[in-house]
Write a structure and sequence with these properties.
Length: 208
């Protein structure tokens, strides 16, 4: 058993999971002499109904059954754009996404209900300066708020494999992931020589 109560104990888990999702996107593409651009509008939604029951079957020991029964729904509207511009030795890539997110969570076992609505902005900047035909300086920054809530909604343990269970303190809050990059690259195809050096910093403040 994963609970180490008895070497002869056996864990039994049943899971019923239903998920329905949909998405629609409209995009516009444009091109000028030095610039390519894209703008989009996206609408998406999902409905996640999860039921699980974890029991330990033992001749000498018993524990209470551990169950999950929750419904999670999400609706998202996003508008964004990307611009890719080349001007002489410079290459500049700019993009953003502005999103409105609505989430609802209800657990039939704990009677816990959470609802949340928020507007969030995700920018990205990448700049490249060509020093020569074979070398360049690169710099970039991005900020994302990925929605990973669906994987962390288990108030009671769920058996992942024969050794590990997972359970969470349920929250619908998003977290911000930031990335900074500065590098130098050398790509000499004629002499078959390629090299790069730089630094990358990633910030992810939240851990489930």
């Amino acid at each position: 058993s994963v609970y180490k109560l008895n070497s002869n104990a056996a864990d039994m888990q049943s899971v019923l999971w239903k998920k329905h999702s949909w998405q629609g996107t409209a995009s516009i593409y444009g091109l000028s002499k030095t610039t390519k651009y894209t703008t989009f509008l996206s609408v998406a939604g999902s409905r996640n109904n999860f039921n699980s029951l974890l029991e330990t079957d033992s001749a000498n020991n018993s524990i209470s059954s551990l169950a999950n029964n929750f419904l999670y729904t999400r609706k998202n509207i996003s508008q964004g754009a990307t611009m890719d511009s080349r001007m002489g030795s410079w290459k500049i890539l700019l993009s953003y996404s502005l999103s409105w997110l609505s989430q609802d969570y209800s657990n039939k076992i704990s009677n816990k209900s959470i609802a949340g609505k928020r507007l969030y902005f995700e920018p990205r900047v990448y700049i490249r300066y060509q020093l020569s035909k074979v070398s360049a300086l690169n710099a970039g920054y991005s900020s994302r708020q990925p929605n990973e809530v669906e994987d962390h909604l288990f108030e009671n343990p769920v058996l992942r494999d024969f050794r590990n269970t997972v359970s969470n303190s349920v929250s619908l809050d998003l977290f911000r992931v930031q990335s900074f990059q500065l590098s130098y690259s050398l790509n000499d195809l004629f002499n078959q020589f390629e090299n790069s050096a730089g630094i990358r910093l990633n910030s992810k403040p939240r851990d489930f």
